[in-house]
Amino acid sequence: MATESCLRLLYTCRNIFHIRQVHANALINGTFNNLIVANKLLHFYVQHKAINDAYYLFDEMPTRDPTTWSIMVGGFSKLGDYNNCYATFREILRCNITPDNYTLPFVIRACRDRKDIQMGRMIHDVVLKYGLVLDHFVCATLVDMYAKCAVIEDARKLFDVMVSKDLVTWTVMIGCYADYDAYESLVLFDRLREEGFVSDKVAMVTVVNACAKLGAMHRARFVNEYICGNGLSLDVILGTAMIDMYAKCGCVDSAREVFDRMKEKNVISWSAMIAAYGYHGKGKEALDLFHMMLSCGISPNRITFVSLLYACSHSGLTDEGLHFFDSMWRDYGVRPDVKHYTCVVDLLGRAGRLDEALKLIETMNVEKDERLWSALLGACRVHGNMELAGKVAESLLELQPKNPGIYVLLSNIYAKAGKWEKVGEFRDLMTQRKLKKVPGWTWIEVDNKTYQFSVGDRSHPQSKEIYEMLTSVIKKLEMVGYVPDTEFVLQDVEEEVKKEMLYTHSEKLAIAFGLIAIPNKGDPIRISKNLRVCGDCHTFCKMVSDVMKRSIIVRDANRFHHFNEGACSCGDYW
Question: How far is it, in rounded angstroms, from Cα 525 to Cα 519?
Fold first, then answer.
């Protein structure tokens, strides 16, 4: 009866002081010697994060069983005390206690949270030794650990051999690929549906994020239909993810429709919609939304101001951007960090106010990073300020001596000025340091399939037709005044060779393929590029949209460009 009374008292405990009273009574009346009581006391201490009390009790226990050890491993793991978690697990093995499917997930999650892949592999060996690799809970936790540690191949191997998979495991694997291979993430989502699972909101957020990374509009529309068809309400997390998805798939109007459908919005939702307008060069719409947010009683945070300043920078709203930067701390109590300073440096740099941008960097009181200096270096390239570019490069190379992008940007600046000796020096440095330039790629989505092009690419099965279409289009453009801008070929070669190189840029090939594969003039040609679109290709897109009467949407490394009737949404300001 004493034992039952002690357990009943434990379940009435509301704080650590009550637990200590029950513990003291158990010691007095002898029920502490009952392992069930001792384990329950230990569990309650851990639940209340009283790890010191738990450890004292554990150390005083006359007997322990696997449950006792598991409670301690779990307690240390939950509190982030990974060293003691590992040490306790090692003691389990040293005492020849067989770890079970309750203990192992705790220590595996500790490896996951610590990104400790070496210890994770050792635990995996223990799992194999004790024949627990087929246990659903253990295996699912290992998949999660490998996924969060970015060891995708090992996560996938375990996932593929699992006898049974629940929705959580599918979600973990889909989320893993969403970070590193968005296309495969969506393939897994298709498999999940074929297996008869109905995704919940958590799973759909990972799928939506994969669509956003891939920029796949057809998949975005399907995902939207799936969410509506399965009655999943647009809460703050899912709705915000969908705003970001549509924005990055090139359809800011659909993003706004989702935003307007959301019954509940928080500051992150508003900031996501402001950012969506920024991606698409709709600075005035971003500002209008910001004022609407204030009128709804939502206070802006640091993310809001990053989105707002970015929108101003990419829309030529220099004075407005500077006003918001000045008002951040004064009016809203948001202290600027390096991301806000980077946006303002970009804002001033694009406007040609390089001296002001440099002065801002020199007087700022937050730690500088490579993105800040890169923003100023990019402005130096646009405005041809080689003297300042050299100074900025020194700061950048100190921060990231092995970043090939810095060397490429500097060599491009000198190439633009015709200083080929300097270009050669930087290219030699790259060779010596075994650095490689990131190749430019352009993707286009046609009939639910994504095609990839590089400069001068002839790997596509319809390569002959693509080049014939490109030649035909260029002739039509030349008849209305198109002249290739060879300034954007940053190599010391003959003028005719420069023209040929411009004609086969990856975005031109993708657009030529789009003209063949998407014959309906009402359907836009959507392409994505991993680098910034060059000035000549930008002009090419504008003229194609006018001459061929086609809408073209380009997503480059900086923003979206919507080409219609000979004009771009960026207003030639990118």
Answer: 10
